[in-house]
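Technical note accompanying the year-one report. For the benefit of new consortium partners, we illustrate the data format agreed upon in the data management plan: each record pairs a sequence with a structure-token string. No post-processing was applied to the example shown here.
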Amino acid sequence: MLLFMVIIASIHFGTYKIPIPDVFNVIAYHLGFGLRPLLKVNIIVWEVRLPRTLMAAAVGMALSVSGTVFQGLFRNPLVDPYILGVSSGAACGAAISIVLAWSILSTQFTAFIFAMLAMGIAYALATNKKETPLINLIISGIIVSSIFTAALNFLKITAGDKQLREITFWLMGGFYTADWKSVKPLLPLIIIGILIVWSLGWKLNVLTMGDQEAKSMGVSVGILKLILISTATFITAISVATVGIIAWVGLMVPHMARMTIGPDHRYLIPLSALVGGIFLVVCDTLARTLIMGEIPISIITSILGSPYLIFLLRTNRQVYFE
């Protein structure tokens, strides 16, 4: 309910403010029981703001849940969804598409393929004798990220001025390309991914106690890690491929949720999804309303995220996984 209220408020705000009753009426009309709205109001609410706001909520949920999963797996509160090189891979794929002047959809598809490729390479490098130690994953993620970052920097050098601006803007993230064509496939995929990891929440609790303890309790550690990492990476990859790289969400929101409800992933995962959705909708609303143009979303998330972690450091608030 809280997320729904934030979404309605976000649709209300903008250069052209839409009264709350009109927002409800437009949505009701398209659901088959509202009055016909004014054409201008219908376009602003249904074609522009609603798909954008839904995408912001979905991406916020995806990044937050993914961050929660990775922090639980690695038992490290400083881990974020990009630890396996997903963001670098997606950025490299998007840059290739931009330099080759492909369409927006081609850019998103290429970014997704490269993001999943980065995860696949990192996981393959980390796996040794059918085991995948977490420290190996961290190291392989750093290696893969460095390789794709080097490739991205090379593409920046070879790109023209216009292409370089497009790459830079993409790297800072934004929901300016949101429409129903991109939202409709994104929403169910993210929801399914979140439900999968949520259903494994109790097993993730066991896994945080260590691999040996998990094995002694009958958990298939290797398969569980692969499912969790693949699913979390997948929802991160489709999010990053669609809207670009968004900083801080997957790192900060799990902290906020964990401090509120504790480390039990059966409750932590849905709360992280809720808080992440609300947080990114609020950030996107600020990004498109603070100035006449549009501020890249990562600038807003960084401005809000950095002081929060400073607060944690200064108050010595610790987040435990036990």
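Partners are asked to follow this layout when depositing records. The chain has a mean pLDDT of 91.
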